[in-house]
């Protein structure tokens, strides 16, 4: 089914909810995301980029940040969300989840039950040249630990299969090969993908989940296995539906330290707003044009704006009435500029 129909089918499940459509490619839904996400069918979302309450920061102006009495309460709630994230993500989908440095390791412990943790990105939050943030003016002598001037972004993909890295594609490739009685060595010979380090070749690396094939390599795999599939029993999916997208180049932030400037304080700024260029970096790397991007804690709508810039469709969930309305207005102006 084409993405447009999938997108509209997803949104049709929210008819009883308060929803705004700033344009045909963006939808903002008001409510508790843990309840709302249950209305999204399985495996329809390509990418989740989201910024939940941090809990450790205890900011009263951020909904949910002071809602949990203990870390365990917060982590149990996040684990419920993670279970839903995995359910709605496509098999080759990815997640970027913002969190504080204090909660990072505890969240990773919970997330690793269902997800492969591929990276933890440190966002250094530099200020725009000439602008001194408030923390630069604070009295340093009052500190009793290192000041948390950075934030973390946990980058992860769903776990599937029983291979080394629980890779969905790795498990599928091994299943196809065994079904067609093609050896790993034989597939390596046919595709010519020997690998430079592992003498078993790229095929064994893909099946273990150590790596993912390029588009050209996947075409070779499909061609080789299709030739062996005399009865046509396997319907090989398109590259975009099985291979996890990860597309970076030298113009992008490609290490696990990101230096995107913080959003400068301004009247009406969301207290946890993330810079659009940072979000674009994640979305461009880990999705394809036309994909559906989900943000379960959308705030002022920055993730949706970044998605629109990159020609993706977005679904935003926001519990606060103020930000629900303001983000819809923001996206309306973005769409007028773009289209």
What CATH calls the topology of the largest domain is: Rossmann fold
Number of strands: 9
Q: Count the DSSP helices.
A: 11
Please state how the strands of the largest beta sheet are arranged side by side.
1-2-9-8-3-4-6-5-7
Radius of gyration: 22 Å
- Biggest β-sheet, characterized? 9 strands, mixed
Q: Helix and strand string, N-terminal first?
A: HEEHEHEHEEHHHHEHEHEH
* Overall morphology: globular
Low-confidence stretches: none
Distance N to C terminus? 25 Å
Question: What is the mean predicted local confidence, pLDDT?
Answer: 89
Helix content: 25-40%
CATH class of the largest domain: Alpha Beta
CATH homologous superfamily identity of the largest domain: Vaccinia Virus protein VP39
Could you say how many structural domains there are in total?
Answer: 2
What is the CATH architecture descriptor of the largest domain? Answer: 3-Layer(aba) Sandwich
Structural class: alpha/beta
Task: Kindly estimate the percentage of residues that lie in beta strands according to DSSP.
Answer: 15-25%
Describe this structure in words.
- Belongs to the N(4)/N(6)-methyltransferase family.
- Its EC number is 2.1.1.-.
- The protein is of the alpha/beta class and 339 residues long.
- It has two domains: 252 residues, Vaccinia Virus protein VP39 (Rossmann fold), CATH 3.40.50.150; 53 residues, no CATH class.
- Helix content is 35%, strand content 17%.
- It contains eleven helices and nine strands.
- Strands 1-2-9-8-3-4-6-5-7 form a nine-stranded mixed beta sheet, sandwiched between helices.
- Strand 1 and strand 2 form a beta hairpin.
- Helix 3 crosses helix 4, helix 5 crosses helix 7 and helix 10 packs parallel to helix 11.
- The longest helix has 18 residues.
- The protein is globular.
- The two termini are 25 Å apart.
């Amino acid at each position: 089914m084409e993405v447009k129909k999938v997108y509209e089918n997803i949104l049709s499940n929210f008819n009883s909810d308060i929803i705004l459509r700033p344009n045909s490619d963006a939808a903002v839904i008001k409510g508790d995301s843990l309840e709302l996400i249950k209305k999204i069918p399985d495996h329809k979302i390509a990418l989740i980029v989201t910024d939940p309450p941090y809990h450790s920061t205890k900011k009263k102006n951020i909904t949910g940040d002071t809602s949990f009495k203990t870390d365990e309460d917060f982590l149990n709630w996040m684990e419920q969300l993670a279970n839903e994230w995995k359910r709605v993500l496509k098999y080759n989908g990815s997640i970027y989840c913002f969190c504080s440095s204090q909660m990072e390791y505890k969240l990773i412990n919970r997330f690793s039950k269902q997800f492969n943790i591929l990276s933890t990105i440190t966002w250094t939050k530099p200020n725009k040249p000439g602008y001194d943030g408030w923390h630069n003016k604070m009295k340093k002598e009052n500190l009793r630990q290192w000041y948390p001037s950075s934030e973390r972004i946990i980058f992860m993909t769903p776990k599937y299969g029983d291979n080394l890295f629980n890779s969905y594609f790795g498990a599928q490739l091994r299943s196809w090969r065994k079904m067609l009685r093609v050896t790993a060595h034989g597939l390596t010979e046919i595709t010519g993908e020997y690998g430079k380090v592992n003498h078993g070749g790229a095929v064994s690396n893909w099946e273990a989940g150590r790596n993912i094939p390029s588009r050209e390599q996947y075409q070779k795999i499909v061609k080789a296995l299709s030739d062996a599939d005399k009865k046509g029993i396997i319907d090989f999916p398109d590259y975009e539906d099985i291979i996890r997208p990860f597309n970076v180049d030298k113009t992008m932030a490609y290490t696990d330290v990101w230096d995107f400037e913080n959003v400068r304080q301004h009247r009406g700024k969301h207290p946890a707003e993330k810079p659009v260029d940072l979000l674009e970096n994640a979305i461009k790397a880990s999705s394809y044009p036309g994909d559906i991007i989900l943000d379960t804690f959308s705030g002022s709508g920055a993730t949706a704006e970044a998605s629109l810039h990159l020609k993706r469709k977005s679904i935003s969930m926001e519990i606060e009435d103020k930000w629900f309305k303001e983000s819809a207005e923001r996206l309306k102006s973005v769409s007028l500029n773009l289209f």
